[in-house]
Design a protein that fits this description.
This protein is an alpha+beta fold. The chain has a domain of 78 residues. Helices cover 64% and strands 10% of the residues. It has six helices and four strands. Strand 1, helix 3 and strand 2 form a beta-alpha-beta unit. The two termini are 91 Å apart.
């Protein structure tokens, strides 16, 4: 009968300690690499998000600044018009004939051959204008051909110059209206669409307000 051999547990299956260490190192390296890649991706996304937020904030800030500048221009223009409305009459009142003389002088540049020129002014200015009108007529070779008439209904500074086939009117009220219309059109050109407070706010402020 064959004798059984007793198992002594001295059989070696390789260097298991080294294998475990190697596996552990490889697992650690793989985990570290994966974690590093995830952290890098997260950091890249955070940077990209921050850049998008910054760009959005900058855009809204520039929009707000543009709106503020337009508002400042509108206010300054309106103020200038209001000052002019108050100042112009006061300046004209100090020497109302000055405006009339300027209008007549400009007309006479083109009216040397007219047989008669009629100048209508406020009755209160007849005496102050007579000598000046006569002198201007003589300088242009129109002596005796400019007729000066006073109108009680006309304001000082206003005048009407008439000749055979035309005429010129200076009316302070109409001039003021024309200036106001020009200013209004200018204000329209610098006025963009109105921006509400939510549109002009920074993105983070809008998000906080919605929460």
């Amino acid at each position: 009968m064959k004798q059984a051999v007793k198992f002594t547990f001295d059989t070696h299956f390789g260097d298991t300690g080294a294998d475990l260490d190697r596996a552990r190192s490889e697992g650690y390296a793989a985990g570290f690499a994966a974690g590093e890649a995830e952290a890098t991706a997260r950091a890249d996304e955070e940077v990209a998000s921050a850049m998008r937020q910054l760009a959005s904030s900058a855009t809204n800030l520039l929009t707000a600044l543009d709106a503020q500048m337009a508002s400042t221009k509108r206010d300054a223009t309106s103020l200038a018009l209001e000052v002019a409305r108050k100042l112009a009459p006061a300046l004209i009142a100090t020497r109302p004939q000055g405006e009339i003389e300027a209008v007549l002088r400009d007309c006479l540049t083109h009216l040397n051959r007219e047989p008669h020129i009629l100048l209508r002014v406020s009755s209160s200015l007849i005496e102050r204008l007579k000598d000046t009108v006569d002198r201007m007529a003589m300088e242009r070779g129109l002596s005796g051909r400019i007729i000066l008439l006073g109108e009680t209904s006309m304001s000082e500074g206003d005048c009407v110059v008439e000749w055979a086939d035309g005429g010129v009117i200076r009316n302070g009220v109409e001039i003021e209206q024309e200036i106001a219309e020009i200013v209004a059109r200018y204000i329209e050109t610098i006025s963009g669409p109105e921006k509400d407070a939510d549109t002009l706010a920074m993105p983070e402020a809008r998000d906080a307000a919605r929460e």
